[in-house]
Design goal:
This protein has helices at 3-18, 33-44, 51-65, 119-141, 144-159, 192-204, 210-229, 231-237, 242-258, 261-279, 287-290, and strands spanning 94-95, 106-107. By secondary structure, the protein is an all-alpha fold. Helix 9 (242-258) runs antiparallel to helix 10 (261-279).
Length: 294
Amino acid sequence: MHRREFFAAATLLTAASRLRGETNQKRPLLLSSDEAHAIREAIRAKDPKYGDDLSELRSLADGALEKGPWSVTFSRPAGIDVPPHEYYSEGPYWWPDPKNPNGPYIRKDGERNPGRFDDNHRDVGVMSSSVLSLGMAAYFLSDERYAAHARKVLSTWFLDPATRMNPNLEFGQAVRGINSGRGTGLIDTVSLIHATQGIVLLEQAGKLDEPLKNGLRQWYSEFLQWMTTSKKGVDEKKSGNNHATWWTAQVAAYATFVNDTAVQKMAWNHYRTVLVPAQIQRNSSCPREEARTQ
């Protein structure tokens, strides 16, 4: 997520923290419906403390109106046999071997290959940031323009039969000459967490019809199923580093979004009983991360 788009999410959390004492409701994603409602009422009452935040939000949302929609089908890797609706990306730290230019790629940790295919990864990030900005603007500013564009963006990426992404990452972070995809590709879709918050705000604003709401939750349900049962998804869960952390964050968010309480509980238990004790040592070190070049 780009810096300015991240500010949109940070704005929600900052504003919600001002209200934390006013509600006991648990937060479903970034903030609860009670918190969102209280912020919106304060905005409607022209509370001056939200002035700068609103200016930034409107700027982000206006920018999002000029972008998209996006689809994995719009940009495909040259010379790679990948079905058109499958997300595809290449591992960032893999390069052609100077000693064997036509052979398998070799790894250079911390050195990103600028020639890799990264279009789908770029687009899922921008799409998710835009949905968050548009959803916030539709809810807090009550402007139909933002909602209408958000619906178009969401339909194109997730639901339209001609352009939808299949709900899996079987071809994520592939390595030429070695594999067609790896579990590590799941770190590419962390931004979808922010898309879910945008969707929830659009729902709370009454800006999504039932077919679109149901279709989005069905997509996320299928993606969650793939994340928790496929070999690549399970490999990522067991990776033992930041990839395992982001797997858990995504599972927790998507399970919350689709109201899968069993999977949500599993994610939280995995965090408490596996991630923290295994990845963070008593002296606060994180060996699996500190072994990396960055």
